[in-house]
Structures are given as structure tokens and as C-alpha cells.
Amino acid sequence: MTGPRRILTVFGTRPEAIKLFPLVHALRADDRFVSRVCVSGQHRGMLDQVLEISGVVPDHDLDLMQPDQSLDELTARLLTGLGRVMDAEQPDWVVVQGDTATAMAGAMAAYYRKIPVCHVEAGLRSGNIYQPWPEEVNRKIIGNIAALHCAPTETAQAALLAENVDPGIVHVTGNTVIDALQWITARIEKEPRLAAGLADLEKRFAHKRIIGVTCHRRENFGEGMQAIADAIRRLAARPEVAVIFPVHLNPNVRKVMDEQLAGVEDVAMIEPLDYPHFARLIGISDLMLTDSGGVQEEAPALGKPVLVMRDTTERPEGVEAGTAMLVGTNADRIVAEANRLLDDHDAYLAMARAHNPFGDGHSAARICDLLCQHS
Ligand code: UD1
Ligand code: UDP
């Protein structure tokens, strides 16, 4: 190919933005590329938090979030909106990340135009199409379309090869989340005020052991969310424990948590944190309780034990390394495993080792090189 490659990077939610800003930075700084960015606005507030801290200014913003959006309506809006942007931009590559509706629709819209797709964080599989739902199928669809699969780990690479994907287009790049975490950590070191907003809570809970919590999975709506709330209440009843819980903006999460946890002593339910403050929260927490994908990667990288409130994970590396444990969404089990870590110092230390199976912080650079090699 002569001349710079036109790369259209497409994303719409908080975790995609976090995992793609390092690549957007790298593309922008590299004269082998013309970098264009389209955000769907699948998330609004939580996406904007990441755009602001990372300095990414989108060339297109579809602004298509609606309150409590359904999967089919969201997907329909995404397909038509993203297709129009691709027609206008005529990119050489479309880059998508992970497994959201935006990523899946972005890959589909590119495929309909025969534009090659680069899939960042390719090859994650839980083996169960309903856990996580609908993400497992989203990433399988993207896996069928991609012309370049950037697998974060060898396990992810092996999953793609087992599905008979051409080995020549599958590469282990590491996960760009580690690039993002290193970038934000360096920024906080230079400008501590970026993560200083938790100071009041840190003072209030100075003599407590902190459990950091996040949850938002669709398959946990209803019973699962109730059980998670119950577990949080029981853990916070321990006199030496406090819970800091930035609550996801999905109304199906907020409603349950507001009903179950408002006013509970030593449970601080707060608004979603921007990325520097969330990195700080992991740092001050004794352990993380989460159903998030990204937090399962970040907590081990920062040496914090993470109890994963799911029955399966497509990120077995943290569990294999001993820094993550699957605890499901049964309240008794969540409480029992958290209590074990709080009471048994050796069990705690065994999990609290900084370990990083997910990347070395150079994934974005590798992906840039691959985009050139495969053009
Ligand atoms: C989405 C992704 C999920 C990802 C998660 C990360 C899909 C199908 N789901 O789930 O894979 O793990 O993001 O957080 O792609 N909302 C706001 N403001 C925001 C964000 C969400 O108000 O900034 C509310 C809106 O009412 C919105 C609802 O949350 O309709 C659901 O958002 P949606 O993106 O459809 O699903 P998530 O559960 O956030
Ligand atoms: N995160 C954040 N603020 C918060 C909670 C999470 O910045 O209040 C970050 C977190 O560091 C991780 C990402 O959001 O990088 C995870 O997003 P989420 O849990 O919404 O989605 P998932 O990773 O499960 O797709």
C-alpha cells in the first residue's frame, strides 16, 4: 500500500474507550497512518469521562444512547449510524475492541462494505453464550469477520486457532488495558490532583479495610443484583470493613442498589469514577469485588485480589495466576470467600501478588505494526 493507511477506530462504551485510547494515541503519533475516530455514544457520561482524561477528540459522535436501551434497538441504530460514517470516511481498516454492541455492529457495518476489520482483544471465550450475555456471541461474530485478530494472551490465540481461524492473521499483542493503566498511573504520579477526589472517603474510612465494588452485567440483572447487594450489606456489617461502590449508570443496576443499600452504614455508593480515580480506588482497596471484565485485568496488575461475581470467565489467566477467584452470584459464597480473605492473612497474601498475565504496556505499538504488515 502506498501512502498512509486510513484507520477508523470505532467505540462507544467506557471499557472500549479505556482500552482503545492508547491505540488512538499511537496511531495519531505515527505518520504511517491517518487516524479517524468514531464514537457511537452507546454510553454518554461514562464514555465522556474517558475521552476527557485521554484527550481523544472524536471526528464523529453518533450520540445514540437512549435511557434503558434494548439490545435490538441499540444494534439497529448502531448499524445504520456506523455504516453512514464508514461511507463518508472510506477507511482502509476499521478497528473495534472487545465485545460490546458497538464493536459487533461496527464489524458488521465494515463487513457489509468489505472493509477489513482489526479486532483488538480477540479470542476471549467463556464457552457459554449466555455468560456474559450478549458479549460472548458479539465477540464470536467479530471473530468470524476480522482480517486481523489481536489476541491479548496465548490462551486467546489458542481459542481462535481452535475455531480454525487462519494462524497467519492471529497475533498475540497483549491487552491494551495495561498500556492504559500504565499511562494513567504515570499521569497520576505527575499530577496527583487527578486522583485526589477520594480524599474525603479515604479520611472517613482511614481505619477500615476497604472493599471496592463494581457490577453491571446484564445476565446478573434481577436475582444476581439482589444477591450482590445482600453480600455487600453483610460484608459492610463487619466493624473493620467499608465498601466503596461506584455504581454503574445502567438503571437496572442503580434501582436495586438504591433500594437495597441506600443509607447502609459504611457503604459509600458513589457516581462512576473517572479512570484516574478508579485506579486510585483499586490502589486503596484491600480487595475488589466485581463482575467487570476490565477490573479482572487491572486488579491483578496492581496486586489486588479480585473476587469475580460470575460463574464463568473468559479471562482465565487471572484465576490461573491465583490473583482472581470466581465466586458466582450467590450471596453466601461471596461473603464466605471475602471473609476468608479478610480473616486469613496467608490466603490474602497468596492472592495479593502483583502479577500481569495480560500484557506489558506495549500492545498499541504492536497493533500499529501489525496494521502495516497486513495492509
Ligand atoms: C455495555 C455493554 C457491555 C459492557 C458495558 C461496560 C453491550 C450490549 N453491553 O453494557 O458489554 O461490559 O457496557 O460498562 O454492548 N447509561 C447511562 N450513561 C452511561 C452509560 C449507560 O445513562 O454513560 C445507562 C443508559 O440508561 C443506557 C443503559 O445504561 O441505556 C445501558 O447501557 P448499555 O450500553 O446498553 O449497556 P451496559 O449495561 O452499559
Ligand atoms: N472503571 C472506571 N470507573 C468506574 C468503574 C470502572 O473508570 O467507576 C473502569 C475500570 O478501570 C475498567 C473499566 O472501567 O477499565 C471496566 O468497565 P466496565 O466494568 O464498565 O466494563 P467491562 O470491563 O465489564 O466490559
TrEMBL record:
Superkingdom classification of source: Bacteria
MF (Gene Ontology): UDP-N-acetylglucosamine 2-epimerase activity
UniProt cross-references to SUPFAM superfamilies, sorted A to Z: UDP-Glycosyltransferase/glycogen phosphorylase (SSF53756)
UniProt key word Nucleotide-binding: no
InterPro entries, per the entry: UDP_GlcNAc_Epimerase_2_dom (IPR003331), WecB-like (IPR029767)
Enzyme type, top EC level: isomerase
Keyword Glycoprotein: no
Keyword annotations: Isomerase
EC number(s) per entry: 5.1.3.14
Signal peptide: none
Catalytic activity: UDP-N-acetyl-alpha-D-glucosamine = UDP-N-acetyl-alpha-D-mannosamine
Residue span(s) of domain UDP-N-acetylglucosamine 2-epimerase: 26-371
Protein family membership: Belongs to the UDP-N-acetylglucosamine 2-epimerase family.
Protein name: UDP-N-acetylglucosamine 2-epimerase (non-hydrolyzing)
